[in-house]
TrEMBL record:
Transmembrane segments: 12-29, 49-68, 80-98, 113-137, 149-165, 171-194
InterPro entries named among the record's database cross-references: Fe3_Rdtase_TM_dom, MsrQ-like
Keyword Membrane: yes
Source organism of this protein record: Aliisedimentitalea scapharcae
A Pfam family per the record: Ferric_reduct
Main location: membrane
Span of domain Ferric oxidoreductase: 49-158
The UniProt record lists the keyword Acetylation: no
Compartments in which it is found: Membrane
Topology of this chain in the membrane: Multi-pass membrane protein
Keywords associated with the record: Iron, Membrane, Transmembrane, Transmembrane helix, Transport
Protein name per UniProt: Ferric reductase-like transmembrane domain-containing protein
Amino acid sequence: MKRFFEATSPYFTWAVLASLGVMMTFTALTSDDPRVFHQLVHPSGETSARLLIVLMMATPLAMLLKGWRGPQWLKRNRRYLGVASFGYALLHTIFYLLDKASLTIVVDELPRLYIWTGWVAFIIFVPLALTSMDYLVRKMGTWWKWLQRWTYAAAVLTLVHWAALNDWNGAAPALIHFGPLIALEAYRIWYWYLRPRPTVA
């Protein structure tokens, strides 16, 4: 396992992250089912949310499991996971628009909670993904880290977007998926701000 984490190349990582998206795109382009776009909306969105959860779990997991290579590997590859999450969010948006096939319907649905939260989360994702290149990370300096903190807002909006689906019937699966992240972030807050610290004599 140690050798796996040390030897995994970025190309292999990208191939794994992109594989499901390639299959979804191939299905969308070749299927004769008139509801194919509707059927792909949810899997693409769920994949985006799962990748978002995994990348956000990296730091608290590394804190909790000190010395374990898995969390360290996740930390090193957070940008890959973030860009992949955006890629699936983009597919999710494209499939949604193709499924509705009407600008009027899309605009009419905007006031719904589970719709506008998804759009705002996607809009937040855009600058996060566009600034993920090494050049821009160096160029932006500390501003890049400030921008990346908006990931938390995107995560909250994604949770609401998922939970509010079908008159909140999506709440259970959304909380099951986001539950580990919420617990780890609670641990992170406790560790940095609330845990008892030894008094200095």
